[in-house]
Design brief:
mainly alpha
Protein backbone atom coordinates (compact mmCIF):
# COMPACT_ATOMS: atom_id res chain seq x y z
CA UNK A 1 0.00 0.00 0.00
CA UNK A 2 1.66 3.21 -1.18
CA UNK A 3 -0.95 5.66 0.09
CA UNK A 4 -2.60 5.89 3.50
CA UNK A 5 -6.28 6.83 3.07
CA UNK A 6 -9.26 6.92 5.37
CA UNK A 7 -11.97 4.31 4.81
CA UNK A 8 -14.24 6.93 3.22
CA UNK A 9 -11.48 8.24 0.92
CA UNK A 10 -10.51 4.71 -0.08
CA UNK A 11 -14.10 3.76 -0.81
CA UNK A 12 -14.68 6.85 -2.94
CA UNK A 13 -11.43 6.33 -4.86
CA UNK A 14 -12.30 2.65 -5.42
CA UNK A 15 -15.74 3.55 -6.81
CA UNK A 16 -14.37 6.26 -9.10
CA UNK A 17 -11.45 4.05 -10.20
CA UNK A 18 -13.77 1.17 -11.16
CA UNK A 19 -16.06 3.56 -13.02
CA UNK A 20 -13.11 4.96 -14.98
CA UNK A 21 -11.77 1.46 -15.68
CA UNK A 22 -15.09 0.06 -16.90
CA UNK A 23 -16.02 3.05 -19.04
CA UNK A 24 -12.48 3.61 -20.30
CA UNK A 25 -11.95 0.00 -21.36
CA UNK A 26 -15.39 -0.12 -23.00
CA UNK A 27 -14.66 3.10 -24.89
CA UNK A 28 -11.25 1.85 -26.08
CA UNK A 29 -12.66 -1.54 -27.08
CA UNK A 30 -15.39 0.17 -29.12
CA UNK A 31 -12.55 1.48 -31.27
CA UNK A 32 -11.06 -1.98 -32.03
CA UNK A 33 -11.19 -2.32 -35.82
CA UNK A 34 -13.41 -5.06 -37.23
CA UNK A 35 -10.51 -6.54 -39.23
CA UNK A 36 -8.75 -7.36 -35.94
CA UNK A 37 -11.83 -9.11 -34.58
CA UNK A 38 -12.30 -11.07 -37.83
CA UNK A 39 -8.87 -12.67 -37.48
CA UNK A 40 -8.95 -16.28 -36.29
CA UNK A 41 -7.46 -16.21 -32.81
CA UNK A 42 -7.09 -19.26 -30.62
CA UNK A 43 -8.59 -17.63 -27.52
CA UNK A 44 -11.84 -16.91 -29.40
CA UNK A 45 -12.31 -20.59 -30.26
CA UNK A 46 -14.71 -22.77 -28.31
CA UNK A 47 -12.95 -24.99 -25.78
CA UNK A 48 -14.00 -28.63 -25.34
CA UNK A 49 -15.15 -28.08 -21.74
CA UNK A 50 -17.21 -24.92 -22.31
CA UNK A 51 -20.53 -26.51 -23.28
CA UNK A 52 -20.62 -28.57 -20.08
CA UNK A 53 -19.51 -25.57 -18.04
CA UNK A 54 -22.29 -23.34 -19.40
CA UNK A 55 -24.88 -26.00 -18.65
CA UNK A 56 -23.51 -26.40 -15.14
CA UNK A 57 -23.71 -22.68 -14.36
CA UNK A 58 -27.19 -22.61 -15.96
CA UNK A 59 -26.30 -19.62 -18.12
CA UNK A 60 -29.57 -19.79 -20.07
CA UNK A 61 -31.49 -18.99 -16.87
CA UNK A 62 -29.69 -15.79 -15.94
CA UNK A 63 -27.94 -14.39 -19.03
CA UNK A 64 -30.94 -12.28 -20.08
CA UNK A 65 -30.93 -10.54 -16.68
CA UNK A 66 -27.50 -9.01 -17.34
CA UNK A 67 -27.46 -5.41 -18.60
CA UNK A 68 -26.31 -4.63 -22.14
CA UNK A 69 -23.47 -2.10 -22.35
CA UNK A 70 -24.88 -0.62 -25.55
CA UNK A 71 -27.31 1.31 -23.36
CA UNK A 72 -24.34 3.43 -22.22
CA UNK A 73 -22.51 3.68 -25.54
CA UNK A 74 -25.20 4.50 -28.07
CA UNK A 75 -22.83 3.96 -31.02
CA UNK A 76 -22.19 0.38 -29.94
CA UNK A 77 -23.98 -2.71 -31.22
CA UNK A 78 -27.05 -3.72 -29.16
CA UNK A 79 -26.79 -7.36 -28.10
CA UNK A 80 -29.92 -7.71 -26.02
CA UNK A 81 -31.96 -9.39 -28.77
CA UNK A 82 -31.33 -11.09 -32.08
CA UNK A 83 -33.05 -8.66 -34.45
CA UNK A 84 -32.21 -10.39 -37.74
CA UNK A 85 -30.99 -13.71 -39.11
CA UNK A 86 -29.22 -12.24 -42.12
CA UNK A 87 -25.62 -13.32 -42.70
CA UNK A 88 -24.35 -9.75 -42.34
CA UNK A 89 -26.15 -9.20 -39.05
CA UNK A 90 -25.02 -12.54 -37.59
CA UNK A 91 -21.41 -11.86 -38.60
CA UNK A 92 -21.61 -8.40 -37.02
CA UNK A 93 -23.11 -9.85 -33.84
CA UNK A 94 -20.30 -12.44 -33.66
CA UNK A 95 -17.70 -9.68 -34.02
CA UNK A 96 -19.38 -7.73 -31.24
CA UNK A 97 -19.29 -10.73 -28.89
CA UNK A 98 -15.54 -10.83 -29.49
CA UNK A 99 -15.31 -7.10 -28.75
CA UNK A 100 -17.28 -7.61 -25.53
CA UNK A 101 -15.10 -10.53 -24.53
CA UNK A 102 -11.93 -8.48 -24.99
CA UNK A 103 -13.44 -5.60 -22.99
CA UNK A 104 -14.36 -7.81 -20.06
CA UNK A 105 -10.98 -9.55 -20.02
CA UNK A 106 -9.17 -6.21 -20.07
CA UNK A 107 -11.40 -4.86 -17.28
CA UNK A 108 -10.17 -7.54 -14.88
CA UNK A 109 -6.44 -6.82 -15.01
CA UNK A 110 -6.46 -3.28 -13.53
CA UNK A 111 -7.78 -4.79 -10.27
CA UNK A 112 -4.15 -5.28 -9.24
CA UNK A 113 -3.79 -1.46 -9.06
CA UNK A 114 -6.14 -1.34 -6.10
CA UNK A 115 -3.34 -2.71 -3.90
CA UNK A 116 -1.58 0.66 -4.32
CA UNK A 117 -3.98 2.54 -2.04
CA UNK A 118 -5.86 -0.20 -0.23
CA UNK A 119 -4.83 -2.60 2.52
CA UNK A 120 -4.23 -6.16 1.22
CA UNK A 121 -7.66 -7.36 2.37
CA UNK A 122 -9.46 -4.60 0.49
CA UNK A 123 -7.15 -5.13 -2.50
CA UNK A 124 -8.26 -8.79 -2.59
CA UNK A 125 -11.90 -7.69 -2.37
CA UNK A 126 -11.31 -5.40 -5.36
CA UNK A 127 -9.76 -8.29 -7.31
CA UNK A 128 -12.80 -10.42 -6.45
CA UNK A 129 -15.06 -7.57 -7.57
CA UNK A 130 -13.13 -7.32 -10.85
CA UNK A 131 -13.66 -11.03 -11.45
CA UNK A 132 -17.32 -11.12 -10.36
CA UNK A 133 -18.20 -7.99 -12.34
CA UNK A 134 -16.65 -9.26 -15.57
CA UNK A 135 -16.58 -13.06 -15.74
CA UNK A 136 -20.37 -13.49 -16.08
CA UNK A 137 -20.38 -11.08 -19.05
CA UNK A 138 -17.36 -12.82 -20.53
CA UNK A 139 -19.21 -16.15 -20.27
CA UNK A 140 -22.33 -14.63 -21.87
CA UNK A 141 -20.31 -13.26 -24.82
CA UNK A 142 -18.69 -16.63 -25.47
CA UNK A 143 -21.92 -18.61 -24.98
CA UNK A 144 -23.81 -16.36 -27.39
CA UNK A 145 -21.01 -16.39 -29.98
CA UNK A 146 -20.94 -20.19 -30.15
CA UNK A 147 -24.73 -20.29 -30.48
CA UNK A 148 -24.58 -17.69 -33.27
CA UNK A 149 -21.86 -19.63 -35.05
CA UNK A 150 -24.06 -22.73 -34.98
CA UNK A 151 -27.03 -20.72 -36.33
CA UNK A 152 -24.80 -19.27 -39.04
CA UNK A 153 -23.50 -22.74 -39.93
CA UNK A 154 -27.04 -24.14 -40.22
CA UNK A 155 -28.14 -21.18 -42.32
CA UNK A 156 -25.19 -21.67 -44.69
CA UNK A 157 -25.98 -25.39 -45.04
CA UNK A 158 -29.64 -24.65 -45.76
CA UNK A 159 -28.70 -22.07 -48.38
CA UNK A 160 -26.25 -24.41 -50.08
CA UNK A 161 -28.55 -27.46 -49.98
CA UNK A 162 -31.82 -25.70 -50.71
CA UNK A 163 -33.37 -26.91 -53.99
CA UNK A 164 -35.12 -23.57 -54.41
CA UNK A 165 -31.74 -21.80 -54.50
CA UNK A 166 -30.75 -24.01 -57.44
CA UNK A 167 -33.94 -23.11 -59.31
CA UNK A 168 -33.69 -19.42 -58.56
CA UNK A 169 -30.10 -19.28 -59.78
CA UNK A 170 -30.91 -21.15 -63.00
CA UNK A 171 -33.98 -19.04 -63.67
CA UNK A 172 -32.04 -15.85 -63.09
CA UNK A 173 -29.57 -16.90 -65.79
CA UNK A 174 -32.43 -17.15 -68.29
CA UNK A 175 -33.63 -13.60 -67.68
Amino acid sequence: MLFQLSALEGTLINIVAWLIIHLGVAYICNMIPSWWLKEEREWFEEKSWENVFYKRIMIKRWKDLAPDGSAIFTESFPKRNLSSKSFFYLHQFILETKRGEVAHILSIFPAILFFLWNPPTVGMIMVMYGLLANLPFLFIQRFNRFRLLRILGKAKKMTIQSPSSQYSSSSSKEC
